[in-house]
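> call design_seq(struct)
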């Protein structure tokens, strides 16, 4: 991964810039769901309740036991002082930015000469972009950033394990290389389970790991990918703990329910008082473009949107246009697979990780900015790589003119 000293300096700079961006949020108060999930939630008031989050009378006490366990630890350290919770959120977010940097280093190694710069600037954008504010500073959304942390950690460690055999030249004596690789796989699997126990968005992790292997390690070769089918099967089995955390009632409710009531804040608009599965899906054709607009031009951000529901593909017309645009981007990803596999993967990344909240699952709120937290990595990577590619073309043209 190149000069370790240079990487350390960049990581320190990422930490410093991220601290400056979020230092004014450490004294913020609790808001909205913080009251029900933290202040009024009795079980986080003792760390001895942590085992019950995972198992209590035959089922987990909460669907996000890992996240709630961190709140219990927070309460043990600082009671209900909100600054303690904000500091933990900040360090989780910073860790995520560093993991993004490491992931991109591993991905871009030996592929482009500017790999350190692309990795650095993409991680900086991820760390300080305004669209991340809700996920980091709204304390209860620790579920989002904590799940993202274990998600990224699982992927990074998996990639390192898969690449280990290529880096052993000569192989480590006494089979130590194989032992180290299996230990890394074990860490990756445990991290995947912790991601599942932090928030349900981790459901896409096994697919992301499979696609990453296919795109970058197996070189787009199905035969090479199939040789590691047992490892990938283990990652798909981590969905079983997720099903356990969610519970039978929640899963069956998702499958059988076709309509949900919108939250009280939205009932002032009759069209948003309830929403069906098809209406939710149609609405996401516009919501996803709202996320993209916020990433490109982060103005008029909102903690709680009153977002008009799409009643059909033509109601409003922007629903159809949004759907066509999404299909066009996914088609572009397919087209770029053999030409620019790096770009192709991160287009898929964006839509895949958004899928649990922007497809057929019906949630009371059709849009929340924190949902684009981890998917945004795809945009930042594409934007940064695009800027470097354009600047490189301009530089070469100027060089020829000289």
């Amino acid at each position: 991964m190149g000069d370790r000293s240079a990487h350390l300096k960049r990581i320190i700079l990422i930490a410093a810039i991220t601290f400056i961006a979020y230092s004014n949020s450490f004294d913020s108060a609790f808001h909205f769901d913080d009251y029900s999930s933290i202040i009024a939630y009795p079980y986080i008031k003792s760390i001895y309740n942590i085992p019950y989050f995972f198992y209590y009378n035959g089922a987990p006490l909460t669907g996000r036991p890992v996240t709630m366990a961190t709140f219990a630890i927070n309460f043990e350290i600082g009671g209900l002082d909100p600054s303690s919770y904000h500091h933990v959120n900040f360090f989780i977010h910073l860790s995520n930015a560093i993991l993004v940097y490491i992931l991109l280093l591993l991905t871009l190694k030996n592929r482009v000469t500017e790999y350190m710069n692309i990795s650095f600037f993409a991680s900086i954008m991820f760390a300080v972009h305004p669209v991340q504010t809700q996920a980091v500073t709204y304390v209860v959304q620790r579920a989002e950033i904590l799940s993202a942390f274990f998600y990224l950690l699982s992927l990074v460690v998996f990639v390192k394990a898969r690449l280990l055999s290529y880096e052993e030249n000569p192989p480590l004596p006494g089979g130590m290389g194989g032992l180290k690789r299996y230990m890394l796989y074990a860490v990756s699997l445990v991290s995947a389970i912790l991601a599942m126990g932090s928030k349900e968005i981790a459901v896409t992790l096994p697919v992301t790991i499979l696609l990453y292997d296919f795109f970058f390690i197996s070189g787009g070769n199905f035969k090479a990918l199939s040789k590691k089918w047992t490892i990938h099967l283990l990652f798909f089995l981590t969905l079983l703990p997720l099903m356990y955390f969610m519970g039978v009632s929640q899963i069956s409710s998702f499958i059988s329910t076709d309509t949900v009531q919108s939250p009280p804040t939205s009932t002032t608009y009759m069209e948003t008082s309830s929403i069906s599965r098809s209406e939710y899906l149609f609405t996401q054709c516009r919501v996803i473009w709202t996320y993209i607009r916020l990433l490109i031009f982060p103005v008029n951000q909102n903690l709680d949107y009153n977002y008009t529901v799409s009643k059909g593909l033509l109601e409003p017309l922007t629903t159809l246009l949004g759907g066509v645009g999404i299909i066009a981007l996914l088609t572009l990803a397919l087209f770029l697979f053999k030409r620019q596999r790096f770009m192709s993967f991160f287009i898929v990344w964006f839509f895949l990780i958004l899928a649990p909240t922007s497809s057929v699952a019906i949630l009371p709120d059709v849009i929340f900015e924190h949902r684009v937290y981890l998917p945004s990595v795809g945009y930042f990577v594409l934007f940064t790589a695009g800027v470097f590619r354009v600047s490189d073309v301009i530089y070469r043209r100027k060089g020829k003119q000289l």
